[in-house]
Structures are given as C-alpha cells and as structure tokens.
User: What shape does this take?
Amino acid sequence: MAVPPLRPEAAATLARGAVIPAHPLALTAERRIDERRQRALTRYYLDAGAGGIAVGVHTTQFEIRDPEHALFEPVLALAAEELDARADADVVRIAGVAGGTAQAVAEAELARDLGYDAVLVSPRVAGADERALLERARAVGEVLPVVGFYLQTAIGGPVLDRDFWREFASIPAVVAVKAAPFDRYRTLELVRGVAASGRADEIALYTGNDDAIVADLLSEFHVDSPTGPRTLRFVGGLLGQWAVGTRAAVSLLERAQRAMGGDEDAYRELGLIASDMVDVNQAVFDPGNDFHGVIAGVHEMLRQQGLLDGTWCLDPAEGLSPGQAEEIARVRLAYPDLNDDAFIAENLETWLR
Assistant: This one.
C-alpha cells in the first residue's frame, strides 16, 4: 500500500524545526471536559507562535481512551476545530495513538478523518516487544505519516536500542522522531539508529527531553551513516514542558537556530538560561517524586496563570506532590522571561471568550 504523503506545508514546518506543545486536558471539578478552557489552551498555543500541536499524547492523559471517559475523539475534534478556524496551513497537526495495532490503527484513522497530519506512536504497549512495536508502526504508517517516540522508563516507556531505531527509521512512513528517554546515552542511541537507517535527510529529530531542552537544541551528533560520517541535530521540540511558557519557547528555539547558524551572542544567551529551564522543569515535572505530579504540575502552572480552573486529572490518584505548587510559584517569580505570565494576562479574556 502507498505511504500517505505529509502535506507540503506541514513537511516544511517539521523540517525547519518548530515548537510543538503537548496539549493538556482541561477538566472540571467533576472530571468532565471543560470545553471553554480546552479551546482557550489551543488558542494560547497558536497565538504564542507554536508551529504545531500534539493532542492525545501523554500530557493529554492516556486515560482519555478509557471507555468510562470516551474523550479521545472529542478532545481531538476540539483542537481540530480551533485549527480549522485559524486556517494556518503551516501548523502541524499531530495526534497521539496508543494501544496495540488494532487500536492504534483505529485511532490513526480517526485522526486522519479529523484532518490531522501525522500520528505520534506511543511505545507504552503492555506485552509488546520490539518486533511488535515495529509491525504496529508499519500498520499505522499505512494510514498517516508517523512520528516515533522514545518515552522515558519512569512513566512506562521501554528501553529501545540502536537497532530498533535503525529499523524504525527505515519505515517509509516515518517523518520525525521524538527523543524523550531523559537519558543522554539512550538519546545518542536513537540518533545513531536514525543515521544508520540511511533516511536521516527525510526524518526530523525533535527533542522531548524536557530536562535537557537547551542541550539538545545546541548539540551536534557526529555519527556514522551508510554514506559516511554525518552530523545530525535536533531541529525543534515536541514537549510537555512547552505546554507552558510556549511563547518563551518560540523565542528560545529561534535563538537556538541563530546560535547553530553562528550567532555567538545567541549561543551565550542560551548557555545562561539552560539551567534556569531545568529549574522550571524540575518544579513542573516533579522528578523528586518519580514524576508523580508531572501532569498535575503542567496544570498547576496553567491554573496559576488563569488558563485552567484546577489541576484535576482523569485518574483521581494523580495530583500535585506536597510543596509542588509552591515550587511552581517560585519559578514563575524567578524566571519571568520563561513563563509567559504577561502574555497570558494580556490575552486571557480573548482566549476564554
């Protein structure tokens, strides 16, 4: 079967590099979708200059697929409606798909029908080995272009070696890969695997390492390929961290692009804020408690800024860790250039209309 092509505008955006926030889920206290605030989030990301939106991913909560919630289609549809209203062809629309092959293919078909450009395939599949993950990616790739995903083990991702990524990148439908193992060695293995596939020129590398955003964007990976030595780099980010401070993230990526083009001032500026970004991420993602508050932390930042009404998650066991809200308030005060407070305050009423 022919591989479905990526829209030219979306392909161009992916290739040049973009800020792609992982879209959160806005809920009421009754844990029902808050449509008004869900739409406001999408509007925020678009007005902030995001080059794409990823919906139905980990930050959106995998539980949206559970029968008792049945939110997968409504959540994707709401984002699609806002994207359609904006009519910006350059914005990449990515839907997360999960589960075994049959479920992932069905979700990809729904995403296609709603106008999404590509799917991010979650590697968190109970009982699936590397061969099963590859076969699933091939099947999904017959529906929509595929974005690979190396998910950190702390939240259920498997360890995937260089050979896996070489074979994964060899699938013609793969157009990008998100590296989020939160591990420098495993990140390098992914890059080496993509290079070894011989398709590095066709696959955009995106960082998902929320704890190493600046380091990834400023790194050059000197790797081997079938045609000889290559230098690869991350061109953008698809990040839960960029679900907050999105306008600041757009500025950060622009500086990274200038720095990699030889702008020494931009390089120095990024060096000065690299550890600040890690501090912000530590407050939001809650690594000190094994990432227990990772999703609620994103919600809390947005709640403090007025975009969300609370930190409710579909799983009642998920929530903020003790002291996490105070840590988020601290980093908001400490790093105003990274949190979008002023931008959100100026536009919040319009987004919540």
About this structure: The first strand starts at residue 19 and ends at 21. The mean pLDDT is 96. The radius of gyration is 19 Å.
